[in-house]
Write a structure and sequence with these properties.
Blueprint lengths: L12 E4 L5 H12 L3 E6 L2 H13 L5 E5 L5 H15 L4 E4 L15 H29 L2 E6 L12 H21 L4 E8 L14 H10 L8 H12 L10 E4 L8
Parallel strand pairs: 1-2, 1-4, 2-3, 4-5, 5-6, 6-7
The structure holds NADP nicotinamide-adenine-dinucleotide phosphate (NAP).
Length: 258
């Protein structure tokens, strides 16, 4: 891993959803490595326990684990309540959870799958941000970061509805950042390309899928979770303090804008 400024997030408290594996766990590792107290969470208590144990065995003592399915209002309340109980405040929210229960074009998506995708990927992100805002206001500063996707800019053909949900997060980032900018609370978004995790395994596990994926990426390599976690650390730190309403794309050169 690249050299890190270990004190950049000292005394900050970060809540990261869907953070027991993949990109979310890497974010928890990176924020902790930069000095933050981190709260990891996901749907399955055994995954939460495993992630907490891993972080502690890596030498991070200020770690809390809370079971939280982001679509469950009680779970979200517990996530924030337990964080306040243990650490006394929240400075950073990373809304990272997403589902994709269907493969196909937008027109292939059933109403049920559409509702689930928007419930987890968009509505829960909105509600988490809404619910954390009063807590950030108490600090008179804060950072909210949404995990979108490159697919939100240029929809992947087989990820139709998921891509639309990720586009919605760009709008949520813009709208919310305007509401909170004058209060020193930044709202930003990260749009990863294809990052090697369980979630994206269908895009690289077979030779054919991997070649197809690589053919789209000018850098000719898949992304690693650390390619995303460092961006989140930057946005959450003082180095990113004057950035709000923006999306950072990390896609190995897949074209995103003019
Ligand atoms: P991943 O490796 O499959 O990890 C998913 C994590 O989310 C696990 O910790 C899982 O734990 C948790 N989770 C799943 N559903 C949840 C829910 N409803 N509530 C709370 N936690 C939940 O996935 P990933 O690739 O890191 O993806 C993370 C984010 O990056 C997603 O928003 C995804 O859309 C985005 N992204 C990924 C890629 C990529 O190529 N990998 C590209 C662009 C964007 P439990 O099973 O215990 O809940």
């Amino acid at each position: 891993m690249a050299q890190q400024n270990v004190s950049r997030l000292a005394n900050k408290v970060a809540v990261i959803t869907a953070s027991t594996d993949g990109i979310g766990f890497a974010i928890a590792q990176r924020l902790a490595a930069e000095g933050a107290k981190v709260v990891v969470s996901s749907r399955k208590p055994q995954n939460v326990e495993k992630a907490v144990n891993q972080l502690k065995s890596d030498g991070h003592s200020d770690v809390l684990g809370v079971k939280c399915h982001v679509s469950d209002a009680n779970d979200r309340k517990k996530l924030f309540d337990e964080t306040i109980k243990k650490f006394g405040k929240i400075d950073i929210l990373v809304s990272n959870a997403a589902v994709n229960p269907t493969v196909g074009s937008v027109l292939d998506c059933s109403e049920e799958a559409w509702d689930k995708i928007f419930d987890v990927n968009v509505k829960a992100s909105f509600l988490l941000a809404k619910e954390v805002t009063p807590l950030l206001r108490k600090q008179s500063s804060g950072s909210i970061i949404f995990m979108s996707s490159y697919a939100g800019l240029n929809p992947f053909p087989l990820l139709g509805a998921y891509s639309v949900s990720k586009t919605a997060l760009f709008g949520l980032t813009k709208a919310l950042s305007q509401d909170l900018a004058s209060e020193n609370i930044t709202v930003n978004c990260v749009a990863p390309g294809i990052i090697k995790t369980k979630f994206s395994s269908a895009m690289y596990e077979t030779e054919v899928a991997r070649e197809t994926a690589l053919s789209m990426i000018p850098m000719r390599k898949l992304g690693e979770v650390e390619d995303i976690s460092g961006i989140v650390a930057f946005l959450a730190s003082n180095d990113g303090a004057y950035i709000t309403g923006e999306t950072i794309v990390a896609s190995g050169g897949m074209p995103s804008r003019l």
